[in-house]
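Whiteboard transcription, Tuesday session. T.W. wrote the C-alpha cells on the left side:
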C-alpha cells in the first residue's frame, strides 16, 4: 500500500491584534495623568505630531480645496497608501539612533527583556507579550485567561501554556492571578509546596496573619512547632511581586475624567478636555511627501504620519468610549447622583457592555484607574460597579455597596472591648431586613480592609 502525502491550502479566519489596535487598547486604559505623559512623549518623538495653535480655526475662513488635501484623512489615503520608491529597499534596515535613547526601566521592560530569551513559536511569544501588557501595578495578571483567549481568539490551552512561561520569569510570583497563586509560585520555586503548605495557603492565610499558630495546627492536624515553621516560611514571601520596580504609579495624581453636573434636577456630563492638548498633523511635511525626492525621508515621514494618525484616533476612541459609558451609568444610577451613596443600584460591567454592544474587557479597561467628579465628591469609576443581593422582603435587589456602608456603620458604633463577630453583624443586618450570610459579611468586611473581631478588640 503506497502512502501518499499531499498538501492542500486551508482557509482560516483569525483575529490578530495589530500594533495599532494594541496601542488603542493601551490608550483606553490610561488615566488622564498617564495619557498626558504619553502625549508629551509622542510630541517629542514624532515631528509630524503637534499641538494645534489656539488661533487655528478662529479666522472663520472656509477651507479651500488646497487645505482640504492637507487633512489627515486625505493624507492617509493619498500618501500613506502610495507605493514606496524602490530605491529605498536597501536603506530600510538602517538603525535609528533614537532607538538607543535610554528610558526609566519598568517591570514590563524587565519582563520583555526576559521574553527575548524564550525559544517559542511567534504565536506563543505574542500571547506572552500581550499578558505582560496586562500586568498590574502589583505584578498580578490583570485579566482572566478566559478573557485573553476570547480577545486573542486562541485556544485556552495555548493561553495557559504562555502563562506558565511568564510566571517562570523574575521576580518570582509575577503574573499570578491572585495572592494565593502568587504565594504558591514562590513556594514551588523554593521546593517548599507540600500538601500541608498548600492547605495553609488555601484555607488559613487569615490565621497566619493573626499569628494563630495553635488554631492552624489544630485545623490541619500537625504539631504546633511544625505549624509555626510553615507560618514563618509564608511570612518571608512577597505578596506584591512588582515591589521595588517602577510601575508608572509613583505619581498618584487624581485628575477626573469628567464632571457630573446637576442643574434643575438634570444631570450633565462635562468631559475634562482642558487637561489634554488638541493634536494635529504638521502640514509642513506634505511637500516632502509629494515630491518624493528623498526615498529615505519619504519612508520616515510616511511612518511617522501613520503613527500620528493612529495615536490621534486612539485618543478620540478613548474619549467616545468613556463618554458612552458615563451616559449609560447616569441613566442607570440617576438617583445615586442626585441623592447620594445609599441610592447606588446594583450594576455590573456586563450590564454596561451589553447595553453598549461592547466587550466586557473594553469596559473594564475604560474604567480602570479613572475618576469622575460627582455633585458630592470625587470617586473612582469602578466603585460604581457593584453586585446585587436578592431580598425577599424588598422589591428587586439591593446594592452590595449599601450593605458595606451598613457594615461600616455597625462596626464604627460597636463596643471595642467586645467587638461583634461576623455572625453578630449578620444578625444585626437581618434585623435591618438584609438577608445575607455570615460568609458574605466576612467577604465584604475583608474588601473594606476591616480586621476580624479579634483584631479590632481593645484590651483595657
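and on the right, the sequence the group agreed on:
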Amino acid at each position: 500500500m503506497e502512502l501518499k502525502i499531499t498538501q492542500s491550502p486551508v482557509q482560516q479566519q483569525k483575529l490578530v491584534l495589530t500594533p495599532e489596535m494594541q496601542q488603542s487598547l493601551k490608550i483606553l486604559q490610561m488615566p488622564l495623568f498617564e495619557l498626558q505623559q504619553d502625549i508629551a512623549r509622542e510630541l517629542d518623538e514624532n515631528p509630524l505630531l503637534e499641538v494645534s495653535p489656539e488661533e487655528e480655526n478662529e479666522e472663520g475662513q472656509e477651507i479651500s480645496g488646497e487645505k482640504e488635501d492637507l487633512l489627515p484623512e486625505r493624507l492617509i489615503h493619498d500618501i500613506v497608501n502610495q507605493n514606496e520608491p524602490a530605491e529605498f529597499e536597501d536603506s530600510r534596515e538602517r538603525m535609528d539612533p533614537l532607538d538607543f535613547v535610554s528610558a526609566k526601566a519598568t517591570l514590563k521592560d524587565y519582563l520583555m527583556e526576559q521574553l527575548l530569551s524564550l525559544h517559542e513559536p511567534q504565536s506563543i511569544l505574542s500571547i506572552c507579550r500581550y499578558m505582560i501588557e496586562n500586568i498590574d501595578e502589583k505584578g498580578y495578571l490583570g485579566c482572566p485567561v478566559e478573557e485573553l483567549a476570547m480577545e486573542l481568539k486562541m485556544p485556552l490551552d495555548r493561553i495557559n501554556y504562555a502563562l506558565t512561561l511568564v510566571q517562570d520569569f523574575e521576580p518570582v510570583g509575577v503574573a499570578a492571578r491572585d495572592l494565593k497563586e502568587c504565594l504558591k509560585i514562590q513556594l514551588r520555586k523554593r521546593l517548599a509546596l507540600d500538601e500541608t503548605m498548600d492547605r495553609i495557603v488555601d484555607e488559613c492565610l487569615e490565621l497566619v496573619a493573626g499569628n494563630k499558630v495553635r488554631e492552624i495546627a489544630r485545623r490541619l492536624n500537625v504539631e504546633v512547632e511544625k505549624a509555626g515553621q510553615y507560618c514563618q516560611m509564608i511570612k518571608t514571601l512577597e505578596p506584591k511581586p512588582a515591589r521595588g520596580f517602577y510601575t508608572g504609579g509613583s505619581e498618584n495624581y487624581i485628575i477626573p475624567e469628567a464632571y457630573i453636573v446637576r442643574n434643575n434636577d438634570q444631570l450633565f456630563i462635562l468631559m475634562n478636555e482642558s487637561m489634554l492638548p488638541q493634536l494635529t498633523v504638521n502640514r509642513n511635511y506634505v511637500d516632502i511627501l509629494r515630491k518624493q525626492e528623498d526615498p529615505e525621508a519619504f519612508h520616515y515621514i510616511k511612518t511617522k504620519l501613520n503613527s500620528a494618525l493612529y495615536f490621534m484616533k486612539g485618543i478620540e476612541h478613548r474619549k467616545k468610549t468613556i463618554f458612552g459609558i458615563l451616559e449609560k451609568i447616569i441613566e442607570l444610577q440617576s438617583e445615586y447622583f442626585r441623592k447620594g451613596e445609599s441610592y447606588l443600584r446594583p450594576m455590573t460591567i456586563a450590564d454596561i457592555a451589553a447595553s453598549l454592544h461592547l466587550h466586557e474587557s473594553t469596559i473594564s479597561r475604560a474604567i480602570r484607574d479613572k475618576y469622575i467628579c460627582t455633585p458630592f465628591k470625587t470617586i473612582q469609576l469602578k466603585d460604581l460597579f457593584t453586585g446585587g443581593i436578592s431580598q425577599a422582603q424588598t422589591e428587586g435587589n439591593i446594592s452590595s455597596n449599601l450593605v458595606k456602608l451598613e457594615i461600616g456603620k455597625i462596626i464604627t458604633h460597636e463596643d471595642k472591648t467586645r467587638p461583634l463577630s461576623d455572625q453578630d453583624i449578620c444578625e444585626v443586618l437581618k434585623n435591618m431586613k438584609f438577608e445575607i450570610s455570615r460568609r458574605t459579611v466576612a467577604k465584604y468586611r475583608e474588601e473594606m480592609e476591616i480586621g476580624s473581631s479579634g483584631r479590632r478588640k481593645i484590651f483595657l
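Someone added at the bottom: The beta strands are 49-51, 258-263, 266-271, 279-281, 371-373, 378-380, 388-390, 397-399.
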